[in-house]
Design a protein that fits this description.
31% strand, 472 residues, 5-stranded mixed β-sheet, alpha+beta, 6-stranded antiparallel barrel
């Protein structure tokens, strides 16, 4: 009997405890499920309206003279005099004598040719008198009969007239050579390089100097095929003038001595071929009077200066101008719909630069464009939209959700007001630091810790403003 009790008693005890444990587990209440909902992000929005956008094309190039030539003498001789302006970098005016060649040989040639002309004119007068005398004699002796040319000495008369014309031509040539002994400027310009000086003997065809005109400066500006499409240039066909009247405006700028200067000009023509290496098309911009002191303190636009160019392009009508930084994945932008939810909008760009993109399709008047860099950009995420005008004095939040607002207090302030005295010191200090720094990128993980603590201690979190869950 004792042996049976020793076996059954432990078994009975285990059965009783098992039943008790089962009853306790069966009567246990399910813990209250609390789900932490992160606060809705506060985003800055801009109300979109259609507008006109003036395209500006950017290019660059080196300044060159519109007219550049070599100064070459048309007579030979020794240089006896040069102008003070005949030196590199000096300016000269049209018709100014830059240098003089010894003209004594040409003075002598002129005197000889004039003497020959006087002799030829004397012979012409004598032959004319003989012609008149022969005509009168023939008419008196042979009335009514026509005389031959030889009888009237007409060939001799034509010969003397030709001799006079030849002598006159030699005089004109001598006068021209004498005039050419003074080398004059063909236009107002500047000396680029000079190759001769006083005492040097020059021949016809020798290069005296390299000069260029200063009335206009030109810049060749390369443009891509897509850029050319936004430039209002007329098509040039065979038989038409390639020059463009009143072409697009161009602003050329460069830095001189740490200061930025600019000059205004116009596109005057486009070149007739596409560059085979770069596949670009060159247009030529022209600036009037580049060396004039039209703007006080501005230096002249020197030949060879490298400049940046802003060319006035076409005007795009009824388009939306969107900041480039909100254009995501070169595909879409974020807008806030009527239910304060984020929505992705695929857009088609017609123009873009470093600051903006220009959209024609995909957006509508009155759309609220999200300007805040919202992480992940979840489709349908509920947000708190704040107009751009009201946010100009407030920093934009980037890299994390902003605090939701309810009754003028942020969500962290609401948590502190309700649970501040009960929170552990570490969590409370961390929440106070986040609320003070407004670094809301740390808010989500911190709220997760606080929600776990509240659930474990039977505390209730304050309600999250406006939900904030993405649509399923």
């Amino acid at each position: 009997m004792r042996r049976i009790l020793q076996v059954l008693l432990p078994v009975g005890i285990f059965l009783v405890f098992g039943v008790l444990i089962a009853l306790i587990l069966a009567s246990k209440e399910e813990p209250q499920q609390r789900r932490f909902a992160p606060p809705s992000p506060e985003v800055v929005v801009r109300t979109l309206e259609r507008e006109d956008f003036q395209i500006t094309l950017h290019s660059q190039g080196a300044v060159r003279a519109r007219t550049r030539s070599s100064l070459i003498p048309e007579v030979r001789g020794r240089i006896v005099k040069v102008s003070p302006n005949f030196q590199e970098g000096a300016f000269f005016e049209q018709g100014e004598v830059l240098l003089e060649i010894d003209d004594r040989d040409y003075l002598a040639e002129l005197a000889v040719s004039k003497s020959a002309l006087a002799q030829a004119e004397l012979e012409l007068q004598q032959e004319t008198a003989r012609y008149e005398q022969a005509r009168r004699d023939w008419e008196r002796l042979n009335p009514g009969v026509n005389a031959t040319e030889l009888t009237l000495r007409e060939p001799q008369l034509r010969q003397t007239r030709a001799a006079v014309a030849s002598a006159e031509a030699r005089v004109a040539t001598a006068e021209l050579n004498l005039k050419r002994s003074k080398v004059t400027a063909p236009y107002a310009g500047r000396i680029l390089t000079k190759n001769v000086d006083v005492g040097q003997y020059v021949t016809t065809g020798s290069q005296l100097a390299e000069i260029y005109a200063v009335d206009f400066a030109e810049v060749r500006l390369p443009l891509t095929a897509s850029q050319i499409g936004f430039l209002d240039l007329p098509a040039i066909y065979r038989g038409s003038n390639p020059s463009i009247d009143n072409g697009p405006k161009v602003v050329l700028s460069t830095t001189v001595g740490g200061e930025r200067y600019s000059w205004e000009g116009r596109v005057v023509r486009s070149e007739g071929a596409v560059d085979e290496r770069t596949r670009q098309i060159f247009v030529v911009a022209q600036v009037e009077n580049p060396y004039g002191a039209s703007v006080p303190g501005r230096p002249p636009l020197k030949v060879g200066t490298f400049v940046q160019a802003e060319i006035e392009g076409s005007t795009l009508r009824d388009v939306f101008v969107v900041p480039r930084e909100v254009y995501r994945e070169n595909s879409y932008v974020l807008v806030v719909d009527g239910q304060n939810n984020l929505e992705r909008r695929k857009v088609t760009t017609v123009w873009e630069n470093d600051r903006n993109i220009v959209v024609r399709n995909g957006l509508s008047d009155g759309d609220l464009l999200c300007l805040t860099d919202v992480p992940y950009a979840l489709e349908g995420w509920e947000v708190v939209a704040k107009n751009e005008d009201a946010s100009k004095n407030a920093p934009m939040v980037a890299g994390g959700p902003a605090s939701g607002r309810q009754g003028g207090a942020s969500y962290p302030d609401q948590v502190l007001a309700k649970l501040g005295d009960k929170l552990p010191a570490a969590l409370k200090d961390e929440l106070v630091a986040v609320a003070a720094s407004k670094d809301f990128s740390k808010l989500r993980p911190l709220m997760g810790k606080i929600a776990s603590w509240a659930e474990a201690n039977g505390e209730e979190m304050p309600p999250r403003p406006m939900g904030g869950q993405p649509r399923s």
